[in-house]
Amino acid sequence: MFCTNCGKEIEGNVRFCPECGALVTKAVEKADDRSGEKSISPEPRIGSIGDLGLLRQMTEKAGKTKKAAGRIAVILMLVYAFLTVRGLLNMLQSVLDGKDDIMSFVFQVFVIILFTCGLLHIGLEIILPFIQGRKAVHAEEYLKYIQVNDRRALMHALGQMKCAAVKSVYMDEHGDVCVAGKKSKHTVTVQNGMPVIMSKRDNYKAVLERETIAACLLKFLVPEAPINAYENEKSNLQLSRMRLLLAIVAALSGLLLIVVAIVYATGDSYINMVKNGYPELYPNITYREAFDAFFGECEWEYFESEDGRDVVEFHGNCMYGDEQVLITIQFLVYEDKGTFEIYTAAIDGEEQPALVYSLLLLKVFESYNGDGERGKLQLEDFISDENDSSAFIESEEAAPAMDLPEGIDNSGDWNIGQDNTVTWESIRGMSGRWSDGNVEVSVSIYSDAEEYVAYSEVGTCFFGEILGTLCFIGSDETSQYLMCELDQGDCFTLQYWGGGEMKIVDATEGLRSVVGVTLYCEEHYES
What we know:
Layout: E1 26-31, E2 38-43, E3 46-48, H1 52-96, H2 102-143, E4 146-148, H3 151-160, E5 166-171, E6 177-181, E7 185-191, E8 194-199, H4 204-221, H5 229-275, H6 287-294, E9 296-304, E10 310-320, E11 323-334, E12 339-347, E13 350-352, H7 354-368, E14 376-377, E15 396-397, E16 421-423, H8 424-427, E17 432-435, E18 440-445, E19 451-453, E20 456-463, E21 466-475, E22 480-486, E23 491-496, E24 501-507, E25 518-524
């Protein structure tokens, strides 16, 4: 006889084709009812049983349910996509209008991606148990239409069917057929002539793979079965990968979000450095205060130049004669020195020479003090002695402006003729924990120098739990004055006259409430 699979002629009484391994039907004797003679008819080792009409009804019902669920999911996704896109367009419009910066927009995009991944993950966790239960039932139903009379025939059928989920098929020591899948190992036993698949794992991936194997086996044995094994396998593979895909997207978005947050935070710190800084001529007026009062639609942003320099750029509107113009000012920030300087300025995109923009800034700060009309420039504003505005061309201090005690200015210069130095011995007594019962300041004075000059770092301090740097800024006949610059941006000035007392004599806006507080040493530190 010839093999029905490969056409090779087979000799002898064999069960499987020696060429391709396909099942060979076995001849059995069957009595002819009319003649009484015995005839030969094939007995299949594995085949189909049952009414395929019932299977068709089940698959049609499952298809309708899947379509209905798909429509609902598509509607929900479209509504969510519409709201998300509308929100993104509003944020993008804010960027284009100058109300927000592009880094903030990028940050919001990654936040939305993470939020979407979270929603999809929650939805997946809710529907997976239902999908898992339905797939398990389908797998059992598919196997009910298969009749197995020989386990070897079952093993060869599983090995010969086309199923990407199956890596290998073998028979174990108990005579059971084992299928090594990509997600789990499955054991196929025969109970009452019907195959039963049991998975080593009991998760949703193993159930999806089990249903894929059952559908492919039925379609291989019964081509006319009303199921689409290929589409079923493809759908199950997508479902099994969905959670991993969401995890990958969420991880990448989270990583990029952290990078954007770091860059955004770095840029924000540089912007605050410039905003809270002040020019030499006006130590009590910050750039933030002067610019907000003079210009309209103020906008600050940070970027890094091609040569790696840190640049803070300001945009604002004002009147120049009878026309509204856009003023652009760029500052170069020197993080290692804690200072910045004006790099360039432009009017309506036209870059101006240093003298012109220094006179422009002079006008801005003079108007803040009431010496000029705010928000309006005239030609005569740019006709002045160069010496009047030279301070704007020099490097600017980044420290916040404070009203220092009489005799000391913000540059550390003396107005009372004293030597602007201090010895370690004269301030070492400040080391300790100071308090008035409510406000607590801890001071630690360095001992690595015998003498300090103005604005040199002399130690560290804590305002409550906020760390700060302590700098000597001057002294008079009776007291030493030291300024503590806190990490959060605020500053305050301490007046120390020896003994067990010192006083907070000045502070930036955020700490104005502690000005005038006298602190007493509760515990002395050896520095």
